[in-house]
Amino acid sequence: MLWKLVLKEIKYQFKTITIYVFFGVIFLFYFSQFGIEAQEIYKPDPGSNDYGVVEITDEYEEMSGIYIQLKNDLLSGEVGKYTPLYKTVKLTEQEKSKLVNWLMEIAPTGEIKDAKTDIKVGYDRFIDIIHSYDDLMGGNTVYNDENRHSFRGKTYEEALQEYKDLKNKDKFTNGSARLFVDYLGITAGLFPIFIAAFVLLRDKKSRANELINSSKISSIKYVFSKYIAVCICVMLGYLVLATFTTIKYMIVANKLNLVIDNFAFLKYTITWITPTVLFTVAMGMLLSIIFNNAIIGIVVQAIICYKSLMPLEGDYSLTKNIIRFNSLGNHENYIYWRNTIITNRLFFTGISLVMVMATVYLWSIKRKDY
């Protein structure tokens, strides 16, 4: 009975325009954000002038780079903010005055030639100043802990080592697959809500509940059939893109005589994106039952999604339902965070099932009222 209901819901979803709009959105996002270019798996040229960038980890390099940014803010009279999209905000004269004082405290000479001698504050005090500046400008500036990143150009040696890791440790496609799910995970954290938030309210609106309530369909079968069906429909779009990308990489690898992991994109799609989809769909269904309104669920999920977008890498706490790993390869960093990512994915899978059971309970109470 359960799988007959699942199949029936899947057939219904593919008769609606909503699922095709969803596919269109994620396909557009894919082709605009994630490219598969052959040069991604070419060995770096020692004569190149650009090998990309790498995040700064040395404290003095970081302070020096941010100091230059602060001076540029003072000269331009504005600072960048995410609200939620990026924009610039002008500094008042009072804010400029405070920024001047902080700059003088950091480097009294007004410039940094040798960071270790010219910077007169410790790293902790420097971060305190950055926090004060962020607070002064209303928060969520580019200096916020989640938004603040300092980069420098990669050396040829670093680019070559990254290529070797991508080739030998990630077999090319594993590194690319993490970037693939980073981009598409953003869509999984938001857009499925537009299907899930209406799936239970739909029958009420069409008065189909009169038939459902008088039938022998249990609440658990009814709710789970819709939940499973929506998750299958949504995941189908991601699996199609994962398969499409795998085929493209196989063609490139065959041309360049490279060994790749043929299952990488499917593997990361299933393990990283599926828990996000499970959570988004479960949240949409639960909130629609609680508030008897789909819009509230959409708004709540949009907020949750936004809170999970930053930083681009390195925060996999249980408050982040989207896994961000916005770099190609970076194998050593992935290994460092792998267990934390696994814990995060298991948590969101578990909490999703809890929310579905809560939906079953609430729907069983409300179905009589319907």
Structure write-up:
The chain has 370 residues and is mainly alpha-helical. It has 15 helices and four strands. It has helices at 2-13, 17-33, 59-76, 93-106, 115-118, 123-136, 156-168, 173-188, 193-199, 201-205, 209-214, 219-256, 264-291, 294-308, 331-369, and strands at 53-55, 78-82, 86-90, 151-153. Strands 1-4 form a two-stranded antiparallel ribbon. Strands 2-3 form a two-stranded antiparallel sheet. The two termini are 23 Å apart. The model has no long low-confidence stretch (mean pLDDT 88).
In DSSP terms, counting alpha (H) and pi (I) runs of 4 or more, how many helices?
15
Largest sheet: 2 strands, antiparallel
Largest beta sheet: strand ordering: 1-4
Distance between the termini: 23 Å
What is the element string, with H for helices and E for strands? HHEHEEHHHEHHHHHHHHH
The count of β-strands is 4
**Cα-atom Rg, whole angstroms?**
25 Å
Helix content: 55-70%
Q: Beta-sheet strand percentage?
A: under 5%
Number of domains: 2
Which helices and strands, and how do they pair?
Layout: H1 2-13, H2 17-33, E1 53-55, H3 59-76, E2 78-82, E3 86-90, H4 93-106, H5 115-118, H6 123-136, E4 151-153, H7 156-168, H8 173-188, H9 193-199, H10 201-205, H11 209-214, H12 219-256, H13 264-291, H14 294-308, H15 331-369
Antiparallel strand pairs: 1-4, 2-3
Features:
single chain, 370 residues, mainly alpha, 2 domains, two-stranded antiparallel sheet, 15 helices, 4 strands, 66% helix, transmembrane helix, ABC-type transporter activity
In short:
The protein is mostly helical and 370 residues long.
